[in-house]
Amino acid sequence: DTGVSQDPRHKITKRGQNVTFRCDPISEHNRLYWYRQTLGQGPEFLTYFQNEAQLEKSRLLSDRFSAERPKGSFSTLEIQRTEQGDSAMYLCASSSPGQGRDQSTDTQYFGPGTRLTVL
Amino acid sequence: GENVEQHPSTLSVQEGDSAVIKCTYSDSASNYFPWYKQELGKRPQLIIDIRSNVGEKKDQRIAVTLNKTAKHFSLHITETQPEDSAVYFCAASVTDSWGKFQFGAGTQVVVTP
Asked: How does pLDDT run across B46-104, given as a tens digit for each residue?
């Protein structure tokens, strides 16, 4: 399978615990995105990497959230001191540079997501 | 800020009929509009996209239209089949951000045999 993969697929944790998710993008893609999706809503942007550089973070991302992509390949998203409101599906997507000079038009391919439940 | 509104939130159609989902966006400089289909428990999958230099695009039973002046775009599914049942999301690119999309809230499409 050469698509975007995420691990774990499901995570149940107790409030206050730390959790870490992993995303492996499509191998030739240098752009990686994290989204959060709650029931009945579309994905909400959290953060974005180009290679190893984290270029943008949403204001939705509190200080308890941190993401890394140390070698420009896989990425991790860590949530510290989880709260019940963190329960959601965490989606990762990847893309490669768009054609031409307009780089806002990359096609993003999503992984299967990690469903987090905070008890 | 950027905002994408999607209507309807739910859509029930008889098999063989057409389904239309509409989205409006606020960022006049948005130039890329993908549509994703998400089946229950599965990842969003790109089904069609359109760029701002094109007014319409078609791929078999699926078509997307874009009206830049009115800032709205629509997904059209013809000859619907039960396997078209899913949640469909529209999205618009955000111009002040590299590659960031703003998604609509989704439309639950149910195709009844």
From this structure: 999 998 888 999 999 999 999 999 999 999 999 999 999 999 999 998 877 667 889 99
Burial group, residue A27, by CB count within 10 angstroms (0-12, 13-18, 19+): exposed
In chain B, residues with a C-beta closer than 8 Å to the C-beta of A50 are 98
Q: Are strands A114-118 and A10-13 parallel, antiparallel or unpaired?
A: parallel
Q: B24-41, pLDDT tens digit by residue?
A: 999 888 889 999 999 988
Three-state DSSP state, A82: coil
Decide if B43 and A56 are in contact by the 8 Å CB cutoff.
Answer: no
CB B45 within 8 A of CB B38: yes
Residue B10 forms contact with A (CB below 8 Å) = no
Cα distances (angstroms) measured from residue B40 to each of A68, A112, B34, B79: 29, 11, 19, 22
Question: What span, in angstroms and rounded, lies between the C-alpha atoms of A2 and A26?
Answer: 6
With 0-12 CB in 10 A as exposed, 13-18 as middle and 19+ as buried, what is A92?
Answer: buried
The CA-based angle B59-B64-B65, given to 5 degrees, is 135
